[in-house]
Specification:
alpha/beta, eight-stranded mixed beta sheet, two-stranded antiparallel sheet, globular
Length: 522
């Protein structure tokens, strides 16, 4: 019988296996930084080498060491000690970790846009096993990062690794990573075609990456978008800068990693689109007497100290431009909180900022298994016409209306216990939302039991301004349709059949033992 052919490993899987060999030398929470920084260096070097060869072929040998001729093509200039070939030539040397640190420092020093993006004196302080590090370098060396530009090979590897690391670290560790399927849904719903996009807790930059992919998919121009963000954790801030740099996405993530509430890096920003996944139910985010007169709460009660959910909401509201839209995630508790939260939520609804509330399925995140909510805010729910790619989009007046959607039964399984939305499902959900927003909704949108409902402000006020979708969406009582006598007879029949099969199995075992010469006492 012929042996079954072994499944060929993908590049991502091979790299992952090599990275796993670092276990024991480095904590799992650290080695994502080890791997991704090296992948960045390989990619930057491949791009540099390609441009270097172009200049030589064009007879511009005098300019091969002038960074201007690289930066003009959105390529980082690499001095000799930072080029990948130099790293590989020294991969077996005892001081390879020091050489990698120097290589990264030299790249950052020669490229202003990378300031603060790369780890400083990182590898030499880890005490990595030289053989394991050399093995990882050899595996990365096999990557042809320029082979498949159309499909964003290096970006694909980055996404794979970020997702894998979040999956590995699990609950309480994967906060820096928002699953691509959710980011894609947010982008398809708020449609960030042009203007300024902002993420106040940007993690590894996934919101920005998917925004650019959305623009590409819909034949827009990436140059029409400006990226602004902020991240609190220094190592994640560096990850974001690398993640965006690798894709040639210029960004303003502030001068440093900083707390969005106490060190706002974009105080005067008015963004056209905001996409965010703030920490869920963040406790003690400000002191009792801190930020009580902050301009971001103007016109609203001060958010409570015990939970930052409404602090994030009001930060987002304060950053929206006149026609700005936001899509962000929060724990479900924010839909019905009392006290200051209720007062803020009521004012948000009276001010007509809330456009849609979407409940997502459980198990979509690596860091928590709870179901969470996608909030869509809009600063302009009036009727208007927007021109996009030569097409006129006519929005109807949605003042005093909120769309509720329940997606808890949607999605498909992946990674054993997690759930995701396939592309066709994302498209269907977003289309339903857009049908509700636009003229002609009478024929294209309909309230649907267990899925969606368009509520008026009066209906919401009657529910004490709760935004829990199940208070508005109709749910069928399937129990009323059950004929209990028939159902019980069916269950009894199934149970009797199970007992009969169990008795037959027992008898077969007894007969087998008798045939083998064992004496059986009943």
């Amino acid at each position: 019988m012929a042996k079954k052919a072994a499944k060929k490993k993908s590049m991502e899987e091979s790299l992952w296996d090599s990275a796993n060999k670092l276990r024991g030398s480095v904590e799992p929470s650290e080695y994502k930084h080890v791997v991704l920084s090296l992948i960045f260096l390989k990619y930057a070097s491949d791009r540099f080498t390609e441009r270097y060869n172009e200049l030589m072929a064009e007879g511009k040998e005098a300019f091969v060491d002038n960074e201007v001729f690289y930066n003009a093509k959105n390529i980082f200039y690499l001095p000799p000690e930072s080029r990948w070939q130099y790293i590989i030539d020294n991969a077996k040397q005892k001081d390879i970790a020091i050489k990698i640190d120097k290589a990264l420092a030299a790249v950052e020093d020669r490229n202003v846009s990378l300031k603060g993006a790369l780890p400083s004196n990182y590898y030499s302080g880890l005490g990595l096993d030289i053989i394991k590090l050399g093995s990882l370098l050899d595996e990365i060396n096999k990557m042809d990062t320029l082979a498949d530009r159309e499909n964003d090979l290096i970006g694909r590897v980055y996404e794979y690794f970020l997702g894998k690391f979040a999956y590995l670290e699990g609950k309480g560790k994967g906060e820096y990573y928002t699953p691509k399927t959710i980011v894609n849904l947010i982008a398809e719903m708020i449609e960030p075609y042009h203007g300024k996009i902002y993420d106040p807790c940007c993690g590894s930059g996934g919101m920005f990456v998917q925004s650019m992919k959305f623009i590409e998919h819909h034949h827009g121009n990436k140059k029409d978008i400006s990226v602004y963000g902020q991240e609190y954790t220094n190592t994640t801030y560096k990850l974001a800068k690398m993640n965006l740099a690798i894709r040639g996405i210029s960004c303003n993530l502030g001068e440093k990693a900083a707390n969005t509430f106490t060190e706002d890096q974009h105080k005067d920003l008015k963004a056209d689109y905001i996409m965010a996944n703030p920490p869920f139910n963040q406790k003690d985010w400000r002191e009792e007497n801190q930020l009580t007169t902050d301009a971001r709460w103007q016109g609203y009660p001060v958010p409570p100290t015990g939970n930052a959910n409404y602090g994030w909401i009001l930060n987002i509201v304060s950053k929206l431009s006149a026609n700005g839209q936001a899509g962000f995630l929060l724990a479900n508790g924010a839909l019905s909180g009392e006290g200051q939260e209720l007062a803020i939520r009521k004012q948000l609804l009276i001010n007509d900022k809330v456009e849609a509330i979407v409940i997502l399925p459980r198990n979509m995140f690596y860091s928590t298994d709870i179901s969470v909510t996608l909030w869509i805010l809009n600063n302009n729910k009036n009727a208007r016409v927007v021109e996009r790619n030569g097409e006129q989009i006519r929005y109807r007046n949605r003042e005093g209306e909120v769309l509720f959607m329940d997606l808890r039964q949607w999605g498909e399984p992946f990674e054993k216990k997690y759930v995701q939305f396939p592309p066709e499902m994302v498209e269907k959900i977003a289309q339903n939302f857009h049908n509700w927003q636009r003229e002609g909704r009478e024929t294209t949108y309909h309230d649907e039991p267990e899925y969606c409902y368009s509520a008026t402000l009066d209906e919401i006020a009657a529910k004490n301004y709760s935004l829990v979708p199940s208070k508005y969406i109709e749910f069928k009582n399937r129990d009323e349709q059950v004929d209990y006598d028939t159902k019980m007879k069916q269950l009894q029949g199934e149970f009797s059949e199970l007992l009969r099969q169990e008795e037959e199995s027992k008898q077969e075992v007894l007969n087998l033992f008798k045939e083998l010469g064992y004496e059986i006492n009943n």
